[in-house]
């Protein structure tokens, strides 16, 4: 089955009982038992719900894994994965990982004794030298947010296997339509499904896919114990969003390509970060491990004042947190998504005050270009 067909026909399609072509929303918390312990697969909706289950099978099929799990947010998903580890365990993470992931590792999970080191995972030798006796996993984000750095998924997964570590990949920016980390050797894939998978700025959700029965058993135990599950209505919204994921991703990618080229040649713009540009350091690697470059672009306008001027003038780019929706969004990472990272650390990473990030939507690209031309003039 080809990618766009899979988005429509993978997972559980429709409803066997009625023939409904769309998965019903099972808005239910508990299920009648015939006798104690005798039930039809579901006993309580934290443990399992048919609509959530349909979504979980679908995302597992799309990522090529063994089992999928739906959580109440991307952070609930990441935090639940981290609960696979114990006090004294160590995890290596990408240095410009999503700000919320940095925060949960350094302000919450550290209090439970889970140690974290943040390194430039685009350099395999740097990752190798960060491995300690107690390291249990390598957590990657590629492309990164907001600097769009690229990590070699195959090389890092190979290294992790040699050392007996798990490879976990945050695949939010690419989605399974453009990148499938499990096929490249990863063990766990996590998504903020709030972004491209939902795609319409109307649901907050997280998804996880694992590549082994043991991980499936362990993560289901955590999902059920901790309970940060996704509700049936939101699960249904994601199933609906996924049907058009291919169309949307193609359009995001094509629009972003045009806009990145335009920004790259504009005199008021400094560095442009977009892996689709031939001069991007991760361009060739990206071509090897993905089938598209995505819709995220960051660029430097020089200062906080200039960034604010741009924001005030733009008409079609909504100033908002988040990304990956049909409408174009714009943000200033230093004061928004990455505000939880101390300024010194941000500057070290290259997240300057004038760095602007756009999530290119699926509007007509000519309108988006005209808007940028007037706002940058
Ligand atoms: C790459 C990435 N991972 C994880 C998250 C967290 O997801 P959520 O906001 O759904 O909790 C985000 C949110 O912006 C993100 O961009």
Automatic annotation (TrEMBL):
GO molecular function terms listed in the Swiss-Prot or TrEMBL record: cystathionine gamma-lyase activity; cystathionine gamma-synthase activity; pyridoxal phosphate binding
Keyword annotations of the record: Lyase, Pyridoxal phosphate
CDD domains: CGS_like
Any single Pfam family the record assigns to this protein: Cys_Met_Meta_PP
GO cellular component, one term: cytoplasm
Record's signal peptide: none
Any GO BP annotation: transsulfuration
Keyword Lyase recorded: yes
Residues carrying N6-(pyridoxal phosphate)lysine: 195
Cofactor(s) needed: pyridoxal 5'-phosphate
Family, similarity comment: Belongs to the trans-sulfuration enzymes family.
PANTHER family cross-referenced by the UniProt entry: CYSTATHIONINE GAMMA-LYASE (PTHR11808:SF15), TRANS-SULFURATION ENZYME FAMILY MEMBER (PTHR11808)
Matching NCBIfam families: PRK07671.1 (NF005810)
Protein name (record): Bifunctional cystathionine gamma-lyase/homocysteine desulfhydrase
Naturally occurring in which organism (per UniProt): Psychrobacillus vulpis
């Amino acid at each position: 089955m080809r990618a766009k067909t899979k988005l429509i026909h993978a997972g559980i399609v429709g409803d066997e009982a009625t023939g409904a072509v769309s998965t019903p929303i099972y808005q239910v918390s508990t299920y009648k038992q015939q006798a104690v312990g005798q039930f039809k697969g579901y006993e309580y909706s934290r443990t399992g719900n048919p609509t959530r289950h349909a979504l979980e099978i679908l995302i597992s099929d799309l990522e090529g894994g063994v089992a999928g799990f739906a959580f109440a947010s991307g952070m609930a998903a990441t935090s639940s994965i981290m609960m696979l580890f114990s006090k004294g365990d160590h995890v290596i993470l990408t240095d410009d990982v999503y700000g919320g992931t940095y925060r949960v590792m350094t302000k919450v999970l550290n209090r439970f004794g889970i140690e974290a080191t943040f390194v430039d995972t685009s350099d395999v030798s740097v990752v190798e030298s960060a491995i300690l006796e107690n390291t249990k996993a390598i957590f990657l984000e590629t492309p990164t947010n907001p600097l769009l750095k690229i990590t070699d998924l195959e090389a890092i997964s190979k290294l992790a296997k040699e050392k007996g570590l798990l490879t976990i990949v945050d695949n939010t920016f690419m989605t399974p339509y453009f990148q499938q980390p499990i096929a490249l050797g990863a063990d766990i894939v996590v998504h903020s499904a709030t972004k491209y998978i939902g795609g319409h700025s109307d649901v907050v959700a997280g998804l996880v896919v694992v590549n082994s029965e043991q991980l499936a058993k362990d993560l289901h135990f955590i999902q059920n114990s901790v309970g940060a599950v996704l509700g049936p209505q939101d699960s249904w919204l994601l199933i609906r969003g996924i049907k058009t994921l291919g169309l949307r991703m193609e359009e995001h990618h094509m629009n972003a390509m045009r806009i990145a080229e335009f920004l790259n040649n504009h005199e008021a713009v400094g560095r442009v970060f977009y892996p689709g540009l031939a001069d991007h350091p991760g361009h060739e690697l990206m071509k090897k491990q993905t089938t598209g470059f995505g819709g995220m672009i960051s660029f430097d306008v020089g200062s906080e004042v200039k960034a604010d001027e741009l924001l005030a003038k733009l008409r079609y780019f909504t100033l908002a947190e988040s990304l990956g929706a049909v409408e174009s969004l714009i943000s200033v990472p230093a004061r928004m998504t990455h505000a939880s990272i101390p300024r010194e650390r941000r500057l070290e990473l290259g997240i300057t005050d004038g760095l602007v990030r756009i999530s290119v939507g699926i509007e007509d690209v000519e309108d988006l270009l005209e808007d940028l031309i007037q706002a940058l003039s």
